[in-house]
Amino acid sequence: MKKIRFGIIGGGLMGREFASAAARWSHLLDLDIQPEIIAVCSRSPQSFSWFTTHFPAIRQTTLNYHELLANPQVEAVYVAVPHHLHQEIYTAAIAVGKHLVGEKPFGIDLPACQAILSCMRAHPGVFVRCSSHWAFYPGAQRIANLLEKGAFGRIIEANCGFLHSSDLDPERPINWKRMVEFNGVYGCLGDLGMHVLHLPLRAGWRLKNVRAILMDIVKERPDGHGGRVPCKTWDNATLFCETTEPASGEPFPLTLKTSRIAPGQKNTWYVEIYGTRASARYSTAEPKGLDFLNYTGGEQVWGRLQTGYETPFKTITGANFEFGFTDGFLQMWAACLYEFGHGQPLRQFAGCVTAEEAAFSHRLFTAALESHRDSRVVDIPG
């Protein structure tokens, strides 16, 4: 089996999730490629002990990402850092020939994302992808299969969203995701929006314009030191997009929601598609259930299918068992390395977000900011 030697830049939550996914690689079947973590960079040296305890192949720990990128043994990097550092670190990695998987939104703003893509074009031999794993849930994959088959008929309406309740408590201390200088002016769109767009963009839907409504609900938060500071990022966003199907060119409305303040939710991703021949609804709030309506005339009857452990990349787990967050993350990484090793994704909806798809999200989010500011519909540049 071919091994790809990885360095992790960012030793926080997502860096540990990737490391854990690499440790579970034996859970996957039939893959001929796997990651091996040999280096870690973090601004918090106390995080090193967890990595070195659990991953004996790690031979380098450093506070300086330049030192990790200079390591000739490191072939690829996973970078999970605040948005304001994306352009700097992503371009540095690409420029020295390290394959890159980076966190969304792939730059703090549109110019930053464009700079990353420009660097990619100058180094075409470097493999680059963006992290997003929710579309690998079995219910989402069922809907993806229906899209591939054209089972919906003409699409009448679609809705996708990501709903958090993490900021419902106004006394929660501020962190970098609630600070414009680190998270960016997109607010919740930059943090959550790529997850919402993953399936629509992979389906080839063409988003033509947007009318956006953004909400700044909690305007200040505790600073963690006894004081209070302004909280200037957008908490919730609803985007109404005129969209067309790639084959027919027929238009339909697509609603996209990203919310950090969604009462009653925890960490919920959902997709709904309504068509002339079939309709389907799926939410990770009830991760085994897929609501489906097949219309052939007469009465309309919604049914609920129970999904099991049905994955694009085979695993040792039986099909009757449940699927969760870490399983989706493992499937995403399997998709990433499969595409790296084979030059193409396993299937249309079994591939990771591309940098070009991330760049489109920036064009959409930039148009959404303009739409909200001027209370009007704004065209999305192609």
Textual characterization of the structure:
The strands form 3 sheets. This protein has a 9-stranded mixed β-sheet with strand order 16-15-14-13-7-12-11-8-18. It has a 7-stranded mixed β-sheet with strand order 3-2-1-4-5-6-17, with helices on both faces. The protein has a two-stranded antiparallel sheet with strand order 9-10. Helix content is 30%, strand content 27%. It has helices at 13-23, 48-54, 65-69, 86-95, 110-122, 138-149, 180-183, 188-202, 325-342, 355-374; strands at 2-9, 33-41, 60-62, 76-79, 99-102, 128-130, 155-164, 206-215, 220-222, 228-230, 236-244, 251-259, 267-275, 278-283, 289-294, 303-306, 353-354, 378-379. Helix 8 packs across helix 10. It folds into 2 domains: 2-130, NAD(P)-binding Rossmann-like Domain (Rossmann fold); 137-318 and 355-378, Dihydrodipicolinate Reductase, domain 2 (2-Layer Sandwich), CATH 3.30.360.10. The protein is an alpha/beta fold. The chain is globular and about 65 Å long.
